[in-house]
Write a structure and sequence with these properties.
Blueprint (H helix, E strand, L loop, with lengths): L2 H14 L9 E4 L6 H10 L3 E7 L3 H6 L6 H14 L2 E8 L6 H14 L3 E6 L18 H14 L3 E4 L2 E3 L6 H7 L12 E6 L2 E6 L4 E4 L2 H12 L6 E2 L4 H4 L2 H6 L4 E4 L3 E4 L1 H4 L2 H8 L2
Parallel strand pairs: 1-2, 2-3, 3-4
Antiparallel strand pairs: 4-6, 5-6, 7-8, 8-9, 10-12, 11-12
Helix pairs in contact: 1-2, 2-4, 5-6
Length: 284
C-alpha cells in the first residue's frame, strides 16, 4: 500500500472518530516489500506497531516456503522497525518437514537475543489441493509437533497469551485480543471481515459489506468459545455462552479445562495440546 493511501485512511478515521493518543495502529509487512524509507513514512503518519512476516531465520527454510526475502533481510527490517517504534512483532512458522525440536529452540534463542517484545509462532498445516499438499511431504508426527510446542514455552522469554502468540507484559496485540474476547470489529476492503453489533444484533460482515447478515445468538456464542478458548484469559461464562457450553463436561475434565476468577473457563497446558478436539466436545 502506498503511504499516501494509508495517510488518507487514517486522516478520514481521525476526522470522523475520536482517536486516542494510545490507540494501536499496526501495519503488517514482509521483508523486501518495506524498506527503511517507507517504514519511516508509515511511522511518521502514526503507525506505532509493526508486525513482520519473518517465518524463519534459515535461508533454506525460507526458500522452501517460497519467501522473497532471506534471513538477513528479515533481521535488517526488524532492526529498522525497533529503532522506530517500541512495539514490534514477528511471525514464524515451525513444523516444516525438515524441522526438529532443536530447530525450534534455535529460533526461540534468536528471538530472545533480538529482544522482540512480541511474536507469533504458527505450526505449519498442509491443506489438500495446495502446492504443498500435492508434494507428498513427510511431516513431523503429532508427538514431535507437541514437543516443539512445549519447547517454545520452555525456551522463549515471552509469555504465551494465546495458542500461538507470545509477548512481554503490556505488548499483547490489542486488536487480536479484541477479536478473541468477542468484541465488535469492522472489516474494510475486499479481504476484510467484521463482526458488528447493532441494536443488540450481531452481524457478519465481509468484503466491504458484500456480505452482511445477522448471526444467531448460538452462532455468535460458538465463535466466542472457539476464539476465547485459544487465549489464557479464556471464555466469559455469560448468558449466551452458558447455553452452548457443556459445563458438566468442563467440570469432569479438570486436567484439560479450568475455571478461573471472573467467571471464565480456559484450557490447561494439557488441554491446549488437543484444543480443537476439546472445543468440539465442550460445545453442546
Amino acid at each position: 500500500m502506498p503511504t499516501k493511501i494509508f495517510a488518507k485512511i487514517l486522516n478520514a478515521i481521525r476526522k470522523n472518530f475520536e482517536v486516542l493518543n494510545n490507540t494501536e495502529i499496526t501495519i503488517e509487512a514482509n521483508p523486501k516489500t518495506l524498506d527503511a524509507t517507507r517504514l519511516r513514512e508509515f511511522c511518521d503518519i502514526g503507525t506505532n506497531r509493526i508486525s513482520i512476516g519473518v517465518q524463519s531465520f534459515d535461508d533454506e527454510k525460507l526458500r522452501f516456503l517460497g519467501r522473497a526475502h532471506n534471513a538477513d533481510d528479515a533481521r535488517r527490517l526488524i532492526d529498522d522497525a525497533m529503532a522506530r517504534v517500541k512495539n514490534v512483532s514477528a511471525d514464524f512458522i515451525y513444523g516444516l518437514p525438515s524441522d526438529s525440536v532443536d530447530d525450534v529452540i534455535k529460533t526461540c534463542t534468536e528471538i530472545n537475543k533480538i529482544g522482540l517484545p512480541h511474536c507469533s509462532l504458527y505450526e505449519l498445516t498442509i491443506e489438500p489441493n495446495t502446492p504443498f499438499g500435492k508434494m507428498n511431504l513427510q511431516m513431523p508426527s503429532n508427538e514431535t509437533m507437541a514437543e516443539m510446542y512445549m519447547a517454545i514455552a520452555k525456551n522463549l522469554k515471552l509469555n504465551r497469551y494465546e495458542v500461538s502468540n507470545y509477548a512481554k507484559a503490556g505488548f499483547e496485540c490489542r486488536h487480536n485480543q479484541n477479536v478473541w474476547d468477542g468484541a465488535p470489529y469492522i472489516g474494510v476492503g475486499d479481504g476484510a471481515a467484521g463482526r458488528i453489533l447493532i441494536d443488540n444484533i450481531w452481524y457478519e460482515e465481509m468484503g466491504d459489506r458484500k456480505l452482511f447478515k445477522p448471526l444467531s445468538d448460538s452462532e455468535r456464542a460458538i465463535e466466542r468459545v472457539i476464539t476465547g478458548m485459544r487465549t489464557r484469559r479464556g471464555v466469559l461464562l455469560d448468558g449466551t455462552t452458558k447455553k452452548i457450553i457443556d459445563i458438566e463436561f468442563a467440570k469432569s475434565n479438570s486436567d484439560m479445562i479450568e475455571f478461573r476468577p471472573g467467571n471464565r473457563i480456559r484450557a490447561t497446558d494439557a488441554g491446549i495440546l488437543v484444543l480443537d478436539n476439546l472445543i468440539e466436545r465442550l460445545v453442546k
